[in-house]
Amino acid sequence: MTILLLIRHGENDFIGKGLAGRLQGVHLNDKGRRQAEALAEQLGKAPIKAIYSSPLERALETAQPLAERLGLEIQTRPGLIEVDYGEWEGKAFRQLKRLKLWKTIQTAPAGVRFPGGESLQEAQQRVCKEIETLAGFHEQEDLIACVTHADVIRLSTAYFLGMRLDDFQRLSVSIASMTVFQIHEKRFRLLHLNQVFALDWVQAETKKGGKAK
Questions:
Q1: Which of these, 155, 164, 111, lies nearest to 130 by C-alpha position?
Q2: Pairing mode, if any, of strands 2-8 and 178-184?
Q3: Please, which residues bridge with residue 146 across strands?
Q4: Is the pLDDT of residue 143 over 50?
Q5: What does each C-alpha distance from 46 to 3, 62, 124, 143, 200 come to in angstroms?
Q6: Residue 207 falls within a domain, yes or no?
């Protein structure tokens, strides 16, 4: 069974503020570059046969240190690109949370189509077909890395686990994390979910602006 490392890209300045989607010119920030280097350090001796990436800059920049460490070429794959959020792309979360559709996405996302973009069902089908295609390029015991996006990883993991699409947001995919599974034809095994190499614990702020204890 081919082993796939699904790696979420490192941090960028949209994280926690807005929905970058497929915007061009969204690059890793300093922290994101350090995360990419840490991933390369951890995986630099792994017997990875190929590195595939979403064509968006933040994914390619995450893949680059690992590719350099292993002496491999990054192969861009449009099938690994972020969900097409349509008119929501580039919008701040504070704007999106006012919309009725936002509430629907939290409770019943399976029937949602982003205005001017993909439905989540279409995105899931696209991504899972791509993952099966990539697995088919390799021998059963090959290890491959795919650098992509949070919703892409959650949607594909939910599908291969047999979860309802409405439940995909129960899965957590942290920045610069790695989800690992084996796949061959119709056989699937989840090995790791949301593995991170360093945890940054953020203290919650009180309403008065102080730090919670």
A1: 155
A2: antiparallel
A3: 6, 52
A4: yes
A5: 12, 17, 28, 8, 25
A6: no
Backbone torsions φ then ψ of 5, nearest 5 degrees: -100, 110
Q: How far apart are CA 181 and CA 76, in angstroms?
A: 20
Residues 6+ apart with CB under 8 A from 210: none
102-118: per-residue pLDDT in tens?
999 999 999 999 999 99
CATH number of the domain encompassing residue 17? 3.40.50.1240
Domain membership flag for residue 186:
yes
User: Which DSSP helix (H) or strand (E) runs through 48?
Assistant: strand 48-53
Specify if 48 maps to a domain.
yes
Residue 210, domain member (yes or no):
no
CA distances from 147 to 28, 82, 90, 153 (A): 13, 11, 21, 10
**Which strand ranges, in their side-by-side order, compose the sheet holding 2-8?**
74-76, 48-53, 143-148, 2-8, 178-184, 187-195
Look up the pTM and report it: 0.91
DSSP states along 168-187? GGGS---TT-EEEEEEETTE
Answer with the residue of higher pLDDT: 85 or 139. Answer: 85
CA angle 49/55/56 to nearest 5° reads 125
Per the structure, the count of domains in the chain is 1
Write out the catalytic residue numbers: 9, 82
Instruction: Report the distance separating Cα 45 and Cα 88, nearest Å.
Output: 40
